[in-house]
Design brief:
It is found in: Membrane. The protein has 24 helices and no strands. It has about 550 residues and is an all-alpha fold. The protein folds into 2 domains: about 280 residues, MFS general substrate transporter like domains (Growth Hormone, Chain: A, Up-down Bundle); about 140 residues, no CATH class.
C-alpha cells in the first residue's frame, strides 16, 4: 500500500477508528481509541461515584447518627423502663391471692430486691460483650420474667394452674428484676463512657429517669388498663403483662443505639455547647416530673373527689409520652444529621461536616490518622486544666487524714475492697438503710390499707408518689453532693443524710398511722432512697471501681 495511502489511513484512524481496512493498523488505532474511551469512562465513573457519595452522605445526614448524644437520648428511654422493680406494690395484691401468707409475699419481695441489686453478672456481661448485647439480654430476662409472673397470678397456663411452688415464683421474680438491672448497667455505663468529663451529671440525669419509671408506667396503667368489676387481681395481672411487653420491646429497639462511640478530639473542647445540651435534657426531665405529678394527682380520687373521664387520662398519657421523648427533639441538631455534640441547627451541622471531612481526610492521607504525641499531650493537659479549674480540689480533704486506717487508693479490685475497712462500713450502712426503706416500699399497699387508706390510693397512687419523690431525691442529691464537694465536705456526707431521712420516714408512719402519715412516709422514703442510690452511684463513679461490678440502682 502506498505511503500516501498509509498516511490517509492513519489520519482516518484518528477520526473514524471503526472504518479501518488494514488489520494491523486497525488494531493499533482501535487500541488508542479504546484507551481514550477507558480514560473518558473512568472520568465519568469518578464523577458519577462522587455524585452518589454526595447523595448518600446527604441521606445519612438526615438520619439519626449514633453519636454520644444519640446514645444519651436512647438511654433516657431505656432508663424509663429500668426502675419497674419499685412497682411491686401494684401487683403484690395479685400475688397474695396465690400466696395468702404475708411472709410468703415478703419472701418474694426479697427475691425481687436480690435480682435488682445483684449486678455482678450484669457487669461481667457488659465487660465481655458491651452495652448492646447486655441490653438485649436484659430485655429477654425482663420479658420472660414478667410473663412468668403473669402466668403465676392468672393461673391459666399449663404448669401454672395449680399453686406454683414458692421457690419457682421467687426465681421468676428475681430473673425479671435482674433484667431491669441489666437495663441500668448498659444505659448508664455506655453513657458515662461517652461523656468521660460529665460522668456525675450523666449519672444523675439517667438515675432520675430510672426513679421516675414506676410513675410513668403507673400512668399507663391508669389510662390503658381500665377498672373491672371482677376485682383488682385481674387488673394487676394486666399491668404485669403490660410492663413485660413494653419493657422488653423498648430494650430490644434501643439496643442498636446504646453503645460506646468514639469522640473526635474537637468535640471534647466545646464545654459550653455541651453544657447547653445538658441543660435541655434537664429541662425535659423537670417537665416530665411536673407532668407525671399532675397526672398522678388527678388520678387520685381521694384528692379530687371523683374519677376523671377516660379521654382526659388518655390525653395526659399522650402528653407524658411526648415529654418523655422530648430529648430527641431538643437534641435534634446533634442527633439528626449534625454529628456528635457540635451544637444544633446550621452552625452545628457545618461544624459536624468539617469534622467528618477531617476524619475522612485522616483516613485517606498517608499518616493522616496518626497524631503526634505532643499534640495529644497538649490536648490532655488542656482538658485536665479545664477540669481542675471547674472542680478544684477541696483543701479540707487534702489536709484531713482518714479517721480509720484503710485503703487510700480509689481503684481497687473486688478482693482488695473486701479487705478494706471502708468497704464493710459502707456495706453495713447500705444494708440497714436500704433494707428499711425497701420494706416499706414492698408493703406500702398493706400499710396504707391498715391505716385506713382506700384501695385506689394504696396501689398506683402510692407507687407514683414514691417514684416522683425518688426522682427528685436523685436530682437534689446530685446538686448537694457537688456543692458540698466544692465546700470541702466528703461526698459520703450526703449518703449519711439520705440514710437519716430513711429513719425519719419510718418514724413518721409509726407516729402517725393515718392515710396522711402513710403518704408522708412514702414521700420521705422515696426522696431518701433516691438520694441514697444516687450517692452510692456517685461514689462508685468517683472511685472507678473494678470491672465486673455494675452500677447500683
Amino acid at each position: 500500500m502506498p505511503s500516501g495511502d498509509d498516511d490517509d489511513v492513519v489520519d482516518a484512524s484518528e477520526d473514524h477508528p471503526l472504518t479501518l481496512r488494514d488489520d494491523d493498523v486497525a488494531g493499533a488505532g482501535a487500541g488508542d481509541a479504546r484507551g481514550r474511551d477507558v480514560r473518558g469512562s473512568m472520568r465519568s465513573d469518578d464523577a458519577s461515584s462522587s455524585r452518589r457519595r454526595r447523595r448518600r452522605r446527604g441521606l445519612l445526614r438526615r438520619l439519626p447518627r449514633v453519636n454520644a448524644w444519640t446514645v444519651l437520648a436512647a438511654a433516657v428511654v431505656v432508663q424509663a423502663c429500668a426502675g419497674l422493680t419499685y412497682s411491686f406494690a401494684v401487683y403484690s395484691d395479685a400475688l397474695r391471692v396465690v400466696y395468702p401468707r404475708q411472709r410468703d409475699v415478703d419472701l418474694l419481695g426479697s427475691f425481687k430486691d436480690f435480682g435488682a441489686y445483684f449486678g455482678v453478672a450484669g457487669g461481667v456481661l457488659y465487660d465481655a460483650y458491651g452495652p448492646s448485647v447486655t441490653l438485649v439480654v436484659g430485655a429477654l430476662l425482663h420479658a420472660l420474667g414478667y410473663v412468668g409472673v403473669y402466668a403465676t397470678v392468672t393461673r391459666r397456663w399449663p404448669g401454672f394452674r395449680a399453686r406454683p411452688p414458692l421457690w419457682r415464683t421467687a426465681g421468676i421474680i428475681a430473673v425479671a428484676s435482674n433484667g431491669n438491672s441489666l437495663f441500668d448497667t448498659a444505659a448508664l455505663c455506655a453513657s458515662m463512657a461517652n461523656f468521660p468529663t460529665r460522668k456525675g451529671l450523666v449519672s444523675g440525669v439517667l438515675k432520675a429517669y430510672l426513679g421516675l419509671s414506676s410513675a410513668i408506667f403507673g400512668q399507663l396503667y391508669d389510662a390503658f388498663v381500665p377498672e373491672r368489676e371482677s376485682g383488682g387481681a385481674r387488673r394487676s395481672a394486666a399491668f404485669v403483662l403490660m410492663i413485660a411487653c413494653v419493657g422488653g420491646a423498648v430494650g430490644v429497639a434501643m439496643s442498636p443505639l446504646v453503645r460506646i462511640v468514639p469522640t473526635h478530639p474537637r468535640r471534647r473542647r466545646r464545654a459550653a455547647e455541651s453544657a447547653a445540651m445538658f441543660r435541655r435534657v434537664i429541662l425535659a426531665l423537670v417537665a416530665l416530673v411536673a407532668w407525671v405529678t399532675l397526672a398522678a394527682t388527678v388520678n387520685d380520687p381521694d384528692l379530687i373527689g371523683a374519677s376523671i373521664p377516660a379521654w382526659v387520662n388518655v390525653a395526659l398519657t399522650t402528653g407524658m409520652l411526648l415529654v418523655l421523648l422530648s430529648p430527641w427533639a431538643l437534641l435534634r441538631g446533634v442527633i439528626f444529621g449534625a454529628g456528635g455534640g457540635g451544637g444544633c441547627g446550621r452552625a452545628g451541622g457545618k461544624r459536624a461536616r468539617q469534622e467528618e471531612d477531617d476524619e475522612l481526610r485522616a483516613g485517606l492521607l498517608p499518616g493522616g490518622d496518626e497524631r503526634t504525641s505532643d499534640e495529644e499531650e497538649e490536648e490532655d493537659e488542656e482538658e485536665e486544666e479545664e477540669e481542675v479549674e471547674e472542680n478544684p480540689a477541696p483543701p479540707a480533704l487534702l489536709r484531713s487524714p482518714p479517721l480509720l486506717r484503710g485503703q487510700t487508693s480509689s481503684s481497687l479490685t473486688l478482693a482488695q475492697s473486701a479487705r478494706s475497712v471502708e468497704f464493710w462500713i459502707l456495706f453495713a450502712t447500705l444494708t440497714l438503710s436500704s433494707g428499711a426503706a425497701t420494706t416499706l416500699v414492698n408493703n406500702q399497699d398493706v400499710v396504707a390499707a391498715a391505716c385506713g387508706a382506700s384501695d385506689a390510693a394504696s396501689s398506683a397512687a402510692l407507687v407514683s408518689l414514691f417514684s416522683v419523690c425518688n426522682c427528685v431525691g436523685r436530682l437534689v442529691e446530685g446538686l448537694c453532693s457537688d456543692a458540698g464537694a466544692r465546700a470541702g465536705a466528703p461526698r459520703a456526707a450526703t449518703l449519711m443524710a439520705a440514710q437519716s431521712l430513711v429513719a425519719v420516714g419510718i418514724a413518721v408512719v409509726c407516729a402517725s398511722p393515718t392515710p396522711g402519715g402513710v403518704f408522708a412516709a412514702v414521700a420521705i422514703n422515696g426522696f431518701a432512697l433516691g438520694a441514697h442510690w444516687r450517692a452510692t452511684a456517685a461514689e462508685k463513679a468517683a472511685s472507678a471501681a473494678a470491672p465486673g461490678v455494675s452500677a447500683p440502682r
